[in-house]
Amino acid sequence: MKTISISQINLRDIIKPLYVGFVLAVVYFVPSISHATGYPLYLLEPMRFFLILSIALFDKRISYLLALTIPLFSFLVSGHPFFLKMIIISIELITNVYLYYLIFRVTK
After folding, report:
1. 45: closest CA among 71, 63, 19, 16?
2. For the CA atoms of 27, 94, 20, 13, what is the dihedral angle to 10 degrees?
3. What is the pLDDT of residues 54-104, one digit of tens each?
4. How far is CA 3 from CA 6, 8, 12, in A?
């Protein structure tokens, strides 16, 4: 039986699921917070902001996962954006991630 010591656990492995959950919760609550405060937080583009953070902090799998699921989650939970716009936003976010990693690989 293989045992794992605390020193072998990578802090990023613990933070990844917490970060994804936090992002989904923030995106879910942006319409509610905007309505409650009267300040249009959606103008800050929280989907793109958290995607850029995931590109900076984690590997490309998490970034692609967020690019796919953030608009879908928002659509399923709040009904906004409508379905066609959700697909367009997903394509745009996936393209952003792809182009970042392409440029990073080319300019190494």
Report:
1. 71
2. -160
3. 898 888 998 999 899 888 888 887 777 889 999 999 999 999 999 999 999
4. 10, 10, 19
Could you tell me the two tokens for 32? 């509610």
The tokens for 93 are: 């976010």
> In terms of Cα–Cα distance, which of 28, 25, 104, 16 is closest to 61?
16
Confidence of residue 33 (pLDDT cuts 50, 70, 90): confident
Could you tell me if 3 and 49 are in contact, meaning their C-beta atoms sit under 8 angstroms apart? no
3-state secondary structure the chain: CCCCCHHHCCHHHHHHHHHHHHHHHHHHHHHHHHHHHCCCHHHHCHHHHHHHHHHHHCCHHHHHHHHHHHHHHHHHHHCCCCHHHHHHHHHHHHHHHHHHHHHHHHCC
